[in-house]
Design goal:
The chain has 220 residues and is α/β, with parallel strands linked by helices. It folds into two domains: 137 residues, Thiolase/Chalcone synthase (Peroxisomal Thiolase, Chain A, domain 1, 3-Layer(aba) Sandwich), CATH 3.40.47; 38 residues, no CATH class. The chain is built from eight helices and four strands; from the N terminus they run H-H-E-H-H-H-E-H-E-H-E-H. The chain is flat and about 55 Å long. The chain starts with a helix and ends in a 10-residue tail after the last helix.
Length: 220
């Protein structure tokens, strides 16, 4: 049985290519990279509880690595195909990896995606016991009333292409990726505790490297 994350992401990639005015057949057999952020395996965990329903497709149908590889296989993309699991930041790391590959010239087109499907109460219990979830069920970023985070599910995919100086913009373009950066908090009180100093340092570095004034920021 196939994890719904694999199936729905295939649909998202097809829609992303259509929206970008790119025919999938034009990219088949070319050096397109696929970078997907994914972390949870609720579907596979449910199957693992009953070995009698396992079959020859259970491994590929429920492996995180195959979420990206399924896209490459179906569309015949020949570039890097990677699923990145860094928990809540998985999608950002996928974007970062794609941007690096585009900047270095390793690829000219990247499919960037992310997926999360909540199919079991187990992770809710675990996060609640770890006191990570908001008891009020509200996500109050930047507020003194913030009391935890709220889980969400969904899938997304979009197309990134390298644009050389002087080259015309693609037929359908929603924006330009100026810069992206990642880091980690290092040693904190516990392994799941973020560091405000580390996050501030990353933002400061990204703004400086991009030559961007934070005062011009329009949306967070």
């Amino acid at each position: 049985a196939m994890d719904p994350q694999q199936r729905v992401l295939l649909q998202c990639v097809w829609e992303a290519l259509e929206d970008a005015c790119v025919r999938p057949s034009d990219l088949a057999g070319t050096n397109v990279g696929v970078y997907v952020g994914a972390s949870m395996t609720d579907h596979g965990n449910a199957l693992a509880n009953d070995p009698e329903i396992a079959d020859g497709y259970s491994m590929t149908g429920n492996s995180l690595s195959v979420i990206s590889n399924r896209v490459s296989h179906v569309f015949d993309f020949h570039g890097p195909s990677v699923t990145l699991d860094t928990a809540c930041s998985s999608s950002l790391y996928a974007l970062h990896a794609a941007a690096q590959a585009l900047t270095s010239g390793e690829i000219e087109t990247a499919i960037v995606g992310a997926t999360n499907a909540m199919l079991s109460p187990t992770n809710f219990v675990g996060f609640a016991e770890a006191r990570m979830l908001s008891p009020t069920g509200l996500c109050q970023a930047f507020s003194n009333n913030a009391d935890g985070y709220v889980r969400g599910e969904g899938m997304i995919a979009f197309v990134l292409r390298r644009q050389d100086p002087g080259e015309a913009a693609p037929l359908q373009s929603y924006g330009r990726l100026v810069h992206v950066g990642v880091n980690t908090s290092g040693s904190t009180i516990n392994i799941a505790m973020p560091s405000a100093d580390a996050q501030f340092g990353l933002l400061d570095k990204v703004y400086n490297d991009a030559g961007f004034d934070p005062n011009d920021l329009a949306f967070v």
